[in-house]
Each structure stands twice: as C-alpha cells, then as structure tokens.
Amino acid sequence: MFGRDIFSPEGLMNILMTLPGILLGFVLHEFAHAIVADKLGDPTPRSQGRITLDPRVHIDIVGFILILIAGFGWAKPVMTNPRNYKNLRRDSILVSIAGPLTNLLLASAFIFLMKIFNYSNAFSANEQLQDIIGNMLLFSAYINVVLFSLNILPLPALDGYHVITNLFNTWKYRIFNILEQYGMFIFILLAITGILGKILNPIISFVFNILIRLFL
C-alpha cells in the first residue's frame, strides 16, 4: 500500500494509522464467516476456535505484511463444512458474503465516525492530533473498502468466487475448472503484472466515493 516509502517517517506513520483498520478488517471479516457458518448449523469454525475476536487466531502474518506493502493481503481462512448446512447453496452464499459485507459496514462506520469527529471539533486545540485521528479514520475506511473490493472478485479462494460457484452449476464450464487448478498462479500473475490493480482501483474508487457521499 505504501510502496518503497514504507520505511520513511511518513510511511511508518501511515502504517501506524492504518493498523486499526487492517486489524479490525481482517478479524471481523473472518469472525463474520465463522459466526454465520456456526449459526447456520456448521460446528467446524467453533471446533477450530474461530468464534473469537482474538487477532492471533485470525491474522496470517504474511498476508498482514503484504497488505501493508502491496495493498492486498489475507487473513487465515475459516474452514467450513457445507454439508452441515440445511440449505447448501443458500447458506454457502450467506457465509461467503458475510465477510465482505462486514468490511463494507466497517468502512461505512469509519466514514460516519469521521463525520462526527469533524463536526465535534474535539481536538481543535491540537491540530496535529486532530489530523492523526482524521487520517486514521480515513485510512481505516479505505482499507476496508479495499478488502471488500478484493474479496468480491470471482477468483478462487476469494468470497466472490464462492458466491458465483454456488449460484451456478460451474462444473459445466471449463473456465471454472481452469480457475480451480491455477487460481493462485493466476492471482499472483495478475498482481505482479499490475492487472489486479487496474481491475481493483475502479471498484475501490466507485465504492469509496459512494460511501463518502452517503456518510460524510
């Protein structure tokens, strides 16, 4: 996210201001998957200790570092057993969308908090502190829009892909078999070549601008 300026004073400050949003985004995203699966009859997340807000349970250190330096990353995925659902297709979709929707709600909440903060003038006597808190809320909102936008993409291992495969009989289409086999390679290739950014950036801008208009 901060590129080669990550070790500059400004870059380090940006990271510190982004940490709350990233931690909440990752933890609540995975917690949402776990709790929805649990409520729909799958005991797997509970048996694996995922019904918790403890960051240590949900954070994947590699994915956490990557989102700081590259703008995309991941947490530890919640394992589920769809055979425990009463309605396989419907419940699988509900579990899949729970994570991204949580990030969207978080982004909305951070932007709304910005509005309250701006109107309150609580730290007007200390402009530096006011700027830090304002930027922290802004960065936290933005990172959760990034997580939402990334996860709705129809690429294997992402929530958007699970929604698509449950909505349609994807076994009929060869393209989905190819995606399953080479999904991670395709994802890395898209990221390295910059194509992923070109796909993501318009989505991020669109969603972020809508939230700003609605809540700020």
TrEMBL record:
InterPro entries: Metallopeptidase_M50B (IPR052348), Peptidase_M50 (IPR008915), Rip2-like (IPR044537). Its cofactor is Zn(2+). One of its GO terms (biological process) is proteolysis. Belongs to the peptidase M50B family. GO terms for molecular function: metal ion binding; metallopeptidase activity. The keyword Cell membrane applies. The lineage of its organism: Bacteria, Bacillati, Bacillota, Clostridia, Eubacteriales. It is a multi-pass membrane protein. Its main location: membrane. It is found in: Cell membrane. This is Site-2 protease family protein. GO terms for cellular component: plasma membrane. It comes from the Bacteria. Residues 21-189 form the Peptidase M50 domain. Keywords: Cell membrane, Hydrolase, Membrane, Metal-binding, Metalloprotease, Protease, Transmembrane, Transmembrane helix, Zinc.
